[in-house]
Amino acid sequence: MNAIITLLAGLIFGLGLAFSEMTNPAVVIGFLDIFGDWNPSLIIVMASAISVGMFGYFLKNKQLRPLIASKWQVPALRQIDSKLIIGSALFGIGWGLSGYCPGPGLTALVNNFNEDIYFVSALIIGSGAHFLQTKTFQK
């Protein structure tokens, strides 16, 4: 049951990315170009995502436990630290330069492979470097 729900959530997420054109870097960069040829259409995408998140927290506060899991998975850290700020800055810089974030970047492999393979390669290398760095410092 968990696998089916995960698959359905992934399909809905992917369809939402494709429908909202988040897989098109020109649309994303147009949204980020507030002093140029600004494209405000992604505000609707953000508002939709925030609404879904708020609904999820509303459900969490009304139910003792989730329907298909043993417990709620909610982030425990609430502090703003240097890791959060640096990670957010790197994410934003990468998003602004490439027009992709990880979800749409992986989805765009289907329709924009020749251009997107560079982003996905950098994503894999960066994730691997982070994994190795984290593993090294935990010892």
Structure description:
The protein has 139 residues and is mainly alpha-helical. The chain has helices at 2-19, 25-32, 42-62, 82-98, 102-107, 113-138. It is built from six helices and no strands. It is globular. The longest helix is centred in the C-terminal third of the chain and has 26 residues, at 113-138.
Structural class: mainly alpha
- N-to-C order of helices and strands: HHHHHH
Strand content: under 5%
**What level of helicity do the residues show?**
55-70%
Gap from first CA to last CA: 37 Å
The count of DSSP E runs of length 2 or more, i.e. the number of strands, is 0
Uncertain parts: none
Main sheet characteristics: none
Report a brief summary of the structure.
With 139 residues, the protein is an all-alpha fold. The chain has six helices and no strands.
Q: Topology, pairings included?
A:
Elements: H1 2-19, H2 25-32, H3 42-62, H4 82-98, H5 102-107, H6 113-138
Helix pairs in contact: 2-4
Key features of this structure:
139 residues, mainly alpha
